[in-house]
Amino acid sequence: MNSDFTLAIHSLIFLALQPDRMATSDAISESACVHPVRIRKVLSLLKKYGFIKSKEGVGGGFKFALDLIEVNLWDIYKITSEGSLQPKCPESNEHCIVGANIQRVLFSIFLGGEEHLGEYLKKYTLKEVVDLINEKQ
């Protein structure tokens, strides 16, 4: 799984915790300790799928666009990381029983794993993530 998934969650929670004001990509990147360009890439994706709104210019930035209860972790995973659990198989010898079949078999296994991950991630809404964060304070 790539870091876009966790950066997207971080960004959405950061924005959701300040619903009355816009946040800049610089502020979010400072919170996540990553370069602003990485955050902007993730924010662009989140905007494309309607999770956030943006405003350019003075006083502009980003704002969470939905209700926390409407978004679960699987929703975010699907736009940032879907398919990332698939194994990276090099070209194999097609004349060998293992080489001819390993990619198909592993893809099937890992696809099942991603389906199970999806069912698990659907159980956690952003509201629950916020509650867990607030629990630790």
How would you portray this structure in words?
The protein has 137 residues and is mainly alpha-helical. It has helices at 3-16, 25-32, 36-48, 73-80, 97-121, 126-135; strands spanning 52-55, 61-64. The protein has a two-stranded antiparallel ribbon with strand order 1-2.
Portion in helices: 55-70%
Task: Tell me how many strands there are.
Answer: 2
Question: From the alpha-carbon coordinates, what is the Rg to the nearest angstrom?
Answer: 19 Å
The strand line-up of the biggest sheet is 1-2
Keywords:
mainly alpha, two-stranded antiparallel ribbon, 2 strands, 6% strand
Brief summary of the model shown:
The chain is mostly helical and 137 residues long. It has helices at residues 3-16, 25-32, 36-48, 73-80, 97-121, 126-135, and strands spanning 52-55, 61-64.
Topology:
Layout: H1 3-16, H2 25-32, H3 36-48, E1 52-55, E2 61-64, H4 73-80, H5 97-121, H6 126-135
Antiparallel strand pairs: 1-2
Helix pairs in contact: 1-2, 1-3, 1-4, 2-3
